[in-house]
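hey can u check if this looks right to u? its 456 residues, i copy pasted from the old doc so theres a chance i mangled smth
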Amino acid sequence: MDAVEGVVVAEDEAFWSVVESGEGGALAEVLGLEAGVVEGVLPALVDWRRSRVERSRAAGMRYRVSWSVVDGGAGVLSGRWLVVASEGVPGERVEACVGALVRGGAEPVVVVLDDGELDRWELAGRLTEEDGFGGGFAGVLSLVGLDGRTGVVGVRVGVPVGVAGSLALVQALGDAEIGVPLWCVTSGAVSTGRADGVVVPEQAMVWGLGRVAALEFPQRWGGLVDLPAVWDERVGGRLAGVLGGVEDQVAVRASGTFARRLARVAAGAGRPGEFASGGAVLVTGGTGALGAAVARRLAVRGVPELVLTSRRGLGAPGAAELVAELAGLGARATVVACDVADREALAGLLGEHPVTGVVHAAGVVDTVPLVGVGLEEFAEVLRAKTLGARYLDELVPDAEMFVLFSSIAGVWGSGGQAAYAAANAYLDGLAEARRARGLVATSVAWGPWADAGMLV
């Protein structure tokens, strides 16, 4: 910056400092005008400046996941590798992965779990036996995450077998004191770009869980590997290379090996638009701190009708006061008691209150270390976020606005919040899947909210 530019910048800063102070006399003096001339435009200048500053600050906090092509590596492996699968994993996928390990120099030991062995203690006993026979393992390759079945006896509604099994495996390996790197395989958990396949949100949950395992058990964590739907020898070679490499969040594709990165969104890229609609907007968790904040913002932006859901409806603390406040802002708000994880109840609500926009802010958070979390409590944390989002996707496919409140816990993990991270990774994956289908969707991975008491 030269001297002239420095003077201009200093003068600009001085001018806007006076504007932000709201003092008409001071601004009139800076501009060399009568105070009466300035007083009429000062409020508009203050609002314009505040809006620009807010947007600039928000832009500085925006990041996006990206993918970089990396060297696949030589794929040199050694020793015995435990390969764990479950009944729902296709046999040809197990054979392909085993073949890749053999060609990479490893000696695979395959264990296919039946549904009764998804219990961590049953699994720990099985793993202890396998580990003792042959002198231990050099690594563990889990294919359990590929099991997309639901409704299996012993696994809660809304929790795919692949997620429940992956949770049990992480815990059981610790129980069996097998301290070697664990690699979890998925297919469709991520998309490396527009030309890649559609994301499967249930697979993305395994990545959310895995990121927390990486934080809590770094000494026995290997990484996450997403494989393409179509397998060839190049994929096998790249898989072996990843297992012997340094990257721990990788997508293997026929076109190459891609490593996950988090990059700042470039200034001006993806500038936020204004949602304008004469219809109603549904805000789940609408009487909570986050939902209420969103409702106020929507009202200020001119949304005429809001449907706010919560478990307790108008019985929720502050609900009646919120309705009155929103009326003062020009929006008619209806508060309804509805469990959005109950599809029938949600369908009934939407039948009575049609909406053109959705903000899914419902959710609960529970902080329990992975070693101590049970499947029941894990499922309960998943429930409101994942089932609610799934049913909203099914019931409001043509929404003009579809916003999911996700969390940084799903992006890079959060110790003690495995279920929460998995749930938010599901939301991120669902948004990608909707956009791939040509529908609108935005998933916002928030950090901590001031005064709100939770990571979204």
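The chain has a mean pLDDT of 88.
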